## 1
Amino acid sequence: MLVLQNSGKKLAIGDAGASAFDVFPKPSNDRVLAVHDLPATLTGQNYVANGWDDETEGFGVILQQNRVVAALYTVKSLANDLSQVLIQNYESLNPGLKLTHLTAKNLDYYFWEMNGQRLMLLVQKNDKQSNRITLILGIDSILNALRANPELANADIKNLETLKNNSGS
């Protein structure tokens, strides 16, 4: 089973919506924003979004009938060595599953898939010391709508390379 993990707790597709915030609790600072907006590609469907965001991290879930169908966690700046530990952790959580790894100049995508579910780990290089990490877990149809699949990520990488080549940089 694919999961998101935080502080030893796990969140899976189908979990109750309230349990998501046991795994990824809202920080207790005065700069936390509540998030309830669905991505534009999912509006008008039978989904509800709930989450939080602050200056260092963010978490959100997409629910259907109060069950998790997708979850997203972002760390806005994580040291390079901790990023590698996180990647290794998710590789060990998913033994035997095929890993698809796509890379571009400042991006690394890692995908694991099983039984109509997908986990994507995106590493965006902020600078030489830190990365922005985004983890997305969800059912295939939702992650496809969010462009979180290997084929669309590969197309995005090629488009970025084409734009870079055409701009002469």
Note: The first strand starts at residue 3 and ends at 6.
## 2
Amino acid sequence: MALEQLEPQLVRSITLLSPAAYPYAAHKVPYGQEFQNVLRSGWDVSASPAREVIHSLGVRSLITYFEYDDPPIPRDIQTMYRDCVAINSNVSYHTIPGVEHNFRRPNVAPDARTSSIMMPCERLVGYLLISW
């Protein structure tokens, strides 16, 4: 996991945009079919190493999801990260309304989708400037 390599003395805050979480077993297999099999095997999200990493960072952390992030990020993973706020005062959680996982807005005609990316980007930037 990339966050495990973070050096807190060099970083004051981080923003995680639609972070995933994986079981310990997924960290030991190459990305591909075997990795997918581990994820589909059914695992306890609360036991993911991601929870421990978030709490041990020692820096301000903003965890952000889009309203329509499910799929690909399942709700139980989003809930695990949201619950980190109650345990760690350095962690903030925010949902950006009206946006899909790929930065696009739902129910927008395909030919207008590229321009629709601007609204979620502007919302994210606005939130980051106000929150941090």
Note: Residues 13 and 60 are 4 Å apart (CA to CA).
